[in-house]
Specification:
10 strands, two-stranded antiparallel ribbon, Rossmann fold
Length: 331
């Protein structure tokens, strides 16, 4: 079984800007026709050729939200980029699964200038003058066997993934892929939400908009073959795949600043903006395609959810799991 730990942040979180920030690195279109996007329900999505279960948009509002969410993770980690106990001299080749805007990969490459960092995503990431020379991006689906087969076995010293649950149909398969791809002594770390939303004190009704949204997300994911509660099984999947030193660190992301704990209050202040800004993107694909709802029905329901996100009388939080393990050293 995996061991469990808790940890408290020790950093500051900047206030939510009045206007959405420009993303640190903006994925963009190219002249390559293979990178065409899908436009529907007023949003832009990844090229359908990938046949991915990932239903989140890849447009400018989503890029800005992802970059802001990156700051929230860094705050939770006390200013760090992750929790796995990496030894800097041993970090050689790194892959970031579902890299999004590439902000984590870029920051990691700056912190580890001697490492080669590769960000993989089904949305192309535009390399800018701010992109370190040791950071590159690959347009691919990290769940596809062909993506992993493009690299020799034992290629990586660190595999990182964050908020990738919607794109993962099998956590056991991912654990095995990571094991094969890591060099002996290498680490895998996944930072992931764990549905359902929780309310431990009964302050939010199970029939109210917030917890109903959570239930609908789980049902919508199931229609795509995705278990939105499945990340909790990843530590045991790591053990089964052969990893050692497997660790689970649970965190809470309050929906709003209802907590009297200063750290949770700060996370809640940030998360209420993250939730509001991302609510449509989180939901529209799973609700319209998974549940078969009309866009009008989806919008009406999300309006009800949006009204209660900031209600500090409702003590709702998203469980957030940080899970990592090490491939054994060669004997």
């Amino acid at each position: 079984m995996a061991s469990a730990e808790t940890a408290a942040p020790a950093a500051t979180l900047a206030p939510e800007p009045t206007n959405a920030p420009e993303p640190a690195s903006v994925p963009g279109t190219t002249d390559d026709p293979s990178q065409e996007f899908l436009y529907e329900n007023g949003r832009r999505f990844a090229n359908p050729k990938f046949k991915s279960s990932y239903t989140m948009p890849n447009d400018e509002p989503e890029f800005a939200r992802l970059d802001r969410q990156h700051e929230q993770f860094c705050f939770m980690f006390g200013g760090e980029l992750g929790r796995a106990p990496l030894v800097k001299e041993e970090v050689k080749t790194v892959v970031d699964l579902g890299t999004g805007t590439g902000i984590w990969a870029t920051d990691f490459a700056k912190k580890y200038p001697d490492a080669k960092v590769i960000g993989i995503d089904i949305t192309p990431v535009q390399v800018t003058e701010k992109t370190p020379a040791n950071c590159t991006f690959q347009l691919a689906d990290f769940t596809a066997a062909s993506t992993w087969e493009a690299y020799p076995p034992a290629s990586f010293s660190y595999i990182h993934g964050r908020m990738i649950a919607v794109g993962v149909r099998s956590w056991s398969a991912l654990a095995r892929q990571c094991y094969d791809a890591l060099a002996p002594g290498g680490w895998v770390e996944i930072q992931e939400l764990s549905f359902p939303l929780r309310c431990d004190d009964g302050s939010a009704s199970p029939d109210g908009p917030m917890l109903q949204w959570s239930a609908n997300m789980i049902a919508g994911g199931a229609a795509f073959g995705v278990d939105m509660t499945g990340s909790r099984y990843f530590p045991d999947a790591l053990v089964s795949a052969g990893f050692e030193d497997v660790t689970l660190k649970p965190y809470q992301w309050p929906n709003n600043p209802y907590s009297s704990d200063p750290v949770l209050k700060a996370i809640g202040e940030s998360q209420q903006h993250n939730f509001k800004n991302g609510l449509e993107g989180f939901s529209v694909g799973l609700f319209t395609k998974g549940l078969g709802w009309s866009k009008e029905k989806t919008d009406k329901f999300l309006g009800e959810v949006r009204e209660v996100i900031s209600d500090t009388r409702q003590h709702v939080y998203m469980p957030m799991l940080v899970m990592y393990g090490r491939k054994p050293l060669a004997k």
